[in-house]
Amino acid sequence: MNIRPMTALATLCLLALAHPATAADKPSDPQIAHIAYTAGVIDVENAKLAISKSGNKEVVAFAEDMVRDHEAVNTQALDLVKKLKVTPEDNDTSKALSKAADDERAKLAKLDGASFDKAYVDNEVAYHKQVNGALTTLLIPSASNAELKALLETGLKIFQGHQQHAEHVAATLK
Amino acid sequence: MRSVLYLIAIAGLVLGNCVADAEARTIRVTIEKMAFVPAEIEARVGDTIEWVNKDILVHTVTVKGGWEVLIPAKGTASLAMPEAGQVDYYCRFHPNMKGRLSVAAP
């Protein structure tokens, strides 16, 4: 029970660090849209790496689920921003997320076989925890447009399922 | 994919055959926010289960070692219950989504 608040706290620290000048400010809707979309793209890229590298059936199936779901959510997000005439706005949090993801992917790319599978799935658990924490504590409460908020809430529900799925796959790899 | 289509075709045939049976019902299960609602259904042989997917994601109704029905995002799929028994199903894409069908003899 302590894990979730701790993760949320860690995420908040990360997000606060990413906004050194405006730590107290809430992200705007265009920024939230950009952060959420970026987070989805990162998971799709990691999944594609896993599909190309892993020989483990369960890991590949999980990665295929990640591509299918995150692309579906991001399609909805693009449709929504178009409808709302909002232009997603790049920001320090998106940049920090992308930078951390690039570093992680470079690490994963060097691994093979069982060590790749374990590192990929462990990262999926940690990454979904981090994103779910950010959605719960910062992005959903900060969203002002009701439709954006609803899509983020849907996303949270989906990503909580992904986290459980990742934890289940991680348990089979031990 | 082919086996899924095959199943749907069979489901259609079975459904067609049941039209004469005034007792056969259609029981709806809604899929919303990554859950089957209601998760447990009691039916009789010949009843049709209709899964209405309100999520933006594709889901499946999969019986381990048995049949599978694919339900498109914002779509619907149905299956007539061919035989009595109890089966547990799950979504192959989201394995934490679970449901159960208890099918009684007609």
Give the gist of this structure.
Residues 1-9 and 19-23 of chain A have low confidence and may be disordered. Chain A contains 6 helices and no strands.
Descriptive overview:
- The complex is a heterodimer of chains A (174) and B (106).
- Chain A is mostly helical.
- In chain A, 83% of the residues lie in helices and 0% in strands.
- Chain A has 6 helices and no strands.
- Chain A has helices spanning 3-18, 29-53, 57-84, 92-109, 113-142, 146-172.
- Chain B is globular, with a radius of gyration of 13 Å.
- Chain B has one domain (2-104): Immunoglobulin-like (Sandwich), CATH 2.60.40.420.
- The model of chain B has no long low-confidence stretch (mean pLDDT 87).
- Chain B has one helix spanning 2-18; strands at residues 26-31, 36-37, 40-44, 48-53, 59-62, 68-71, 76-80, 85-90, 98-104.
- Chain B is built from 1 helix and 9 strands, in the order H-E-E-E-E-E-E-E-E-E.
- In chain B, the strands form 3 sheets. Chain B has a 4-stranded mixed beta sheet.
- The longest helix of chain B is centred in the N-terminal third of the chain and has 17 residues, at 2-18.
- Classes of the chains: A mainly alpha (174), B alpha/beta (106).
- The interface between A and B is medium-sized, with 14 and 12 residues.
For the structure shown, list the relevant keywords.
heterodimer, A: Ferritin, B: 106 residues, alpha/beta, Immunoglobulin-like, 3-stranded mixed beta sheet, 1 helix, 9 strands, 16% helix, globular
